[in-house]
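Reopening this ticket.

The earlier resolution said the output was attached, but the attachment link was broken on my side. Pasting everything inline this time so it's all in one place.
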Amino acid sequence: MVDSVGKDDGLTMKHDHRKDIMEIFNAGLDAANPKAAIKRAVVQDENDSGLLRIRGREYDLRQFGRILVVGAGKAAAPMAQTMEELLKERLTGGVVTTKYGHGLSLKIISLIEAGHPVPDDKGLSGTERILDILRDTQETDLIFCLISGGGSALMPLPVAGLTLEDKQITTQELLDCGATIHEINTIRKHISAIKGGKLSRSAYPGTLVALILSDVIGDDLDVIASGPTVPDRSTFNDCIDIIDRYDLTKKIPSSVLEYLLRGRSGEEEETPKPGDPVFEKTEAVIIGSAGLSLDAAAAASRNLGYNTLILSSFIEGETRDVATVHAAIGKEIIKSGNPVKGPASIISGGETTVTIRGAGLGGRNTEFVLAAAIAINGVDGITILSGGTDGTDGPTDAAGAVADGRTCAQAVTKGVKPDEYLRNNDSYHFFETAGGLIKTGPTMTNVMDLRIMLVD
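Inline output:
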C-alpha cells in the first residue's frame, strides 16, 4: 500500500483525482497480494482435519508421507510463509528462491535470495537445492511448487555441459535479434535443467501442486517462469529452426548449438510433452493474475462514483505509443462521452516496451506517464497513473508515476523540459523534479503493470 505520491500543486476537480487514483491503484495491489491469493485458492477444512480444497480438488494431507514446498519468484517468500501457516506441523521442509531484498522470515522452508533480472550463482545454487530435495521423491510425497514473476531468472540452472554464461549470451542474442518471447522460451526451456516441465519430471512420482501467480499476458502457463510444471509442446527441431531463422549459428555459444543439434538427432532427452505420465499427478493452478487486479481496481473505481471501463489486460507495444492512445481516449471522453461518459475511469493492464534512445533513468511506467503528460498538456480533467505491481519500475526505486494536464506546465516553471527528458529516456528524473513519483517499496508480488486514467 502507498498513501501518497509526489507533490501535487493543486488541480481542483469534481473528484479528488490524486486521492482517488491512489485508492484505485492500492485496490489493484491488494488483489495481487500473494498471501490472500493462496488463501483464496487453498481452502482448509474448517475442523483442521488435514483436508485441503484447491480449485475443486481435494487433498487429504493425512494420506501423504512428506509434504514439501519448493519454488521461485518475487512473491516466493510471502507465498512460502502462507504455506507454512496452512500446513503447520505437517510440513516436512522445502526450498524457495526470491529476489534480493524480497525475503521474509520462514520457520521451516529454506529461503535463498538471488539475482534478478540478471541471474547469479545464488540462483544456481537455489535451483540445485530444489532439484536435490526432489531427487528422492516418493509416490507418497506431496509437493507444492510456488511460482511467481521473476521465477525464470531465479531458477537459472542450465543442463549439464552448459554454463550460466552460455544461457545469458544465448538469451541476449535472441533478444537483440527480435525473437518473440515464445521463441526465446523455446530455446531457454531446452537448455534448462528445470524449465519446460522438467520440475514435474523431477517431482514424479510424487503429487505436485503448482500455485502460480501470473505475470504474463494471457496467463499462458507455458510462458510463466518458462513453464517448469507444464508440458512443453516445442522441440529441439523448433530450436534449430529459430536459430536458422535469425541467423544465430555463429552468434550463440558453440556449446549451446552443439547441445541443441545433439537433441535434434535424439542424443539428448527432450522436454516432457503433453501426455507424458509425469503430468498425471501434476495440477497447475493460477491463483492470481492481472485480470484479478484489474477487476479489483474497477470495483474500487465504481465505488468512488466513476463510470468504469476495463480497456484490456493484454496491452503491449511501444510505451510512448500506448500512452498517446490512452491520452486520446481521455480527450474523446471529455469531447463526446465516448467510449464512456465522465466521470470516467479507464483501466488497463499488461506490459509495454521501451526502446532505449537516451542515457537517462526510468522504466516503462514512468515513461508511459511522461509521454501521456505531454499528450494531455493543458487539458483539464484528466489524471493518469501507471505503476508496476511489483513496486519496481525498471532500474529505479519507484513503482511508477502519476500526472495530469498541468504537470508539464508546472515542470517548465521549474526549468524542466518534458520533451528533452522523454527523448533521453529520463522519466524518473523528470518526475523526481516535477513531482509525481509513486514509491511503494517491494510489494512481494507481480502481475504486470496497472494503468489508471480518471476523466471528469
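Reporter confirms the inline version is readable. Residues 1-13 have pLDDT under 50 and may be disordered. The domain at 17-31+291-455 is CATH 3.40.1480.10 (glycerate kinase, domain 1).
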